[in-house]
User: Fold this.
Amino acid sequence: MADSPVPARMLTVDSPAREEPIGEVPVLGADEVKAAVERARAAQKAWAARSVRDRAAVLKRVRARLIERMDEVAACVMRENGKARTEAVMHEVGPLALQITWLAKRAPKLLEARAPRGLAPMPRGTKIHHRPRGVVGIISPWNFPFLIPFSATVEALLAGNAVVIKPSEHTPLVAELGKRIFNEGGVPSELIQVVTGDAGTGAALLEAGIDMVSFTGSVNGGRKVAARCGELLVPCTLELGGKAPLLILPDADLERASSAVVFGGFANSGQVCVGVERVYVHERQYEDVVARLVEKTRALRQGDPEHEEVDVGAMVLPPQLDHVHVLVEDARAKGARILTGGARVERKGRFYPPTILADVTHEMRVAKEEIFGPLVPVMRYSDVEEAVRLCNDSHLGLNAYVFGNDRRQAHAVAERIDAGQVVVNDVFLNYVMPELPFGGVKASGIGRAHGEEGLLSMCHPHVVVDDRKAFAPGSDPWWFPYADSKTAKIVSWLKKTVGLLDVTSR
Ligand code: NAD
Assistant:
């Protein structure tokens, strides 16, 4: 941003735990965003010309810097996002280091040109190359302000792209720090651009001539981005909301399952796209499970992660706290029991206490809408068929969880749940397994991040067909001049190839 003109507006960033200003960033307008894209485009040419192995070596050096500066990243995330220290380290820095480790090793092979085996006598010299898209715009949310934009950055850079990151307006500070770490590791300074600002800056990025968009955020934001990308014919991947069900089968280990609910529902104050947003328990075990949830939830320590050792930190946005409370009140009015929490904590900072709601039904908003806060609704089912139906009764389909001791049955149930990913007897795990593609079905998104699929989504296949078996001029059966004798040859080849040579027409 060195040569940007002075921006018209500044954005104040505050600490959710203390509700005090901690920094400010400029709101960049269309011209500044366009200039950033142009700088990225200029840097991309030389980067794409380097071998994949070379690019991977640079990213391994980035990983070393990242590990060295882990505490600094964690401190910055804690300050602007309010999450607990362990989460800032283990959910933001750790998975990125793992992703670099897995992807940097495999990228040279995955991005190698392929020679597909075709049908004889089609040309044999065909190659499928993986070309970088060019400049990738990365628009990201506030709940994982470091991991999400830089995980997409790793994929994009390995594939030979430049990136322009538009961090969330609520947590923009760690994006600048992340860029510095990548640059210190050897990524050319202009290859990663950070354009700070609000939704308007994100919208300007779409117009700035980028070649792809990697968007992570709300369903509403995703719809708008996808609509504009459709008009501009810019490819986009969308990682949107979640409403993860956690189904406790009757034979599950209730101690493990209830601990998983508490961790999966309250980590990052519930502001996790794969967070446990609804729990289904068999009616015979319902009160037992609810009692365990209450006990374990009451044991959680909530507070300012910068000054206390806590399990649950603060919530990022005031409207998000209001939203959680509205869902609690709606459920209470319709007959739910509030067993822990249920009212805003009276202290400085944006804290909503971890809340367990019992006797919830699908007539309540909390069972249908994304909560994105520390609130876990617990529902009853009487048979597994009903439980599967309830799990699938959602417009979202990102993660889902099934707990059961009989692994065959648990897997059979998992296969019937409409979600991008289903984890058996654990929560969140898929997100930190870099080999797995990650994404949603239904309104949870389009496309996949992570794994081989995420890397390849940052490229477009570039096909070169080499017809080395060229016919003599005039004799190629596909070309002019047409002749019935040539057509007969093609038909004969076609029948042979599809295995119907001896079958007369019916
Ligand atoms: P949001 O949609 O409000 O904003 C996300 C980003 O998009 C921000 O940087 C914002 O400035 C930008 N933006 C908003 N409108 C835009 C527009 N019209 N054009 C261009 N950019 C625009 O989402 P949020 O509140 O920051 O994030 C919370 C949501 O993100 C939740 O729904 C959560 O489930 C989802 N999320 C999904 C995943 C996933 O991987 N599926 C991960 C994390 C969060």
In short: Residues 139-144, 148, 166, 168-169, 198-199, 202-203, 206, 216-218, 221, 224-225, 239-242, 273, 370, 372, 398, 440, 445 surround nicotinamide-adenine-dinucleotide (CB under 6 Å). The two ends are 70 Å apart (CA to CA).
